[in-house]
Amino acid sequence: MLTKWKHIDWTLIIVLLCMMGICIPLVHSAVATSDRFRGLDTQMIFYYVLGFGVIFFMTLVDYRLYVKYFWIVYGGGMLLLLLTLTPLGQTQNGAQGWLKLGPIGMQPAELFKLALVIAIASLLAKRNKEKLGFFADVIPIGIVAFIPFAVVMVQNDLGNALSYVLILLGLLWIGNLKFTHALIIFVLGAGLLFGGIKAYITYHDQVSDFMTNTLGRAHWLDRIDPWLMPDEASRDASWQTKNGKYAIAGGGMTGQGYMQGDMVQNPTGSLVPYTYSDSIIVVIGEEFGFVGISFLLVLYFIMIHRMIVIALECKDRVGSYIIVGIVAMFMYQIFENIGMFIGLMPLTGITLPFISYGGTSLLINMASIGVVMSIRACTKEDLVRDEFADVKGSKVDDGGIQAIRGALSRMGRSKKA
After folding, report:
1. Which domain of life, per UniProt (predicted)?
2. pTM of this prediction?
3. Above pLDDT 90, what percent of the chain?
């Protein structure tokens, strides 16, 4: 089992070490003007050390074990999600999505991402390269994703709920979905998106009344208005995104310098809320500018590229599916977190992978990389085993031995002569 460590992808480890070197100073800068959050950077050191331990542990565990018992993985994740709706659940930043078990706090919606990837990948692999049937496969798999989606929406966590949708769509696409079904899903999705946006803007007063008085989700308006109707959004609603844009723009090409930002390091406190978590891209933009954000995006590109290469090398279809699901999860989080501060996406409580403060988020991301490492290690071991079996049982092997014996006998005969 320990031999799997020699198959670790060191490119991914180096990228993660670089991200650790970026994350901890950024979190330190983000909380420098706040006594309340002081010390979060030290906690991130602990979480990163623990996270690397998780990677090495997950590398040793054969990923096919998760696939074999994927219903247990899925059921355990659902149980944790449902516990947040009981008295054990705690509310943070408006979302009742946290569990406090003694000294340990966790966010099950983050943990469930990997469980959902494993569950959907396992179900798709059972089709064994066959085209997915709409009622036989797409609908049941969609229900598997919709149940946790609904629970997380009840928790009031839109960001993580949307990640389940992106994981589902990414895996369906790679899982041999029929072109006609993909076209139908695309047309329906595009129609709902653009129709919904048009209806939201046209009937804004009615929508506001419905969300506020019927659904009790008035804060959704504060997240959507700055995105679709920035000129009409209230000052409080647009405070985070507008100041975030100002901070990123103020960074220019190379930034104002570490811990020198006008918005983040304001003497009265940061003018951008949650700079240590959801808004940490603002710290990068203001202090290191376009160059700093570009460098981070290059690291993300290298990480995702390496995972795609590992997926292509994997001979086991379920292993490739799992990696694709993890890639879809990361790409959504990266695009959403950065996009909401440049006007491309609505504001949601989603963290920037490996950079934002958050123990649960970091550990589940590290565990996901550990599963990718396990897939790579198992692929390499299977490849070595197959090559050894080919050499041992092939005719080339027997023929080679006979050829060597014949050459030796001929040499012997020539000496006698």
Report:
1. Bacteria
2. 0.89
3. 52
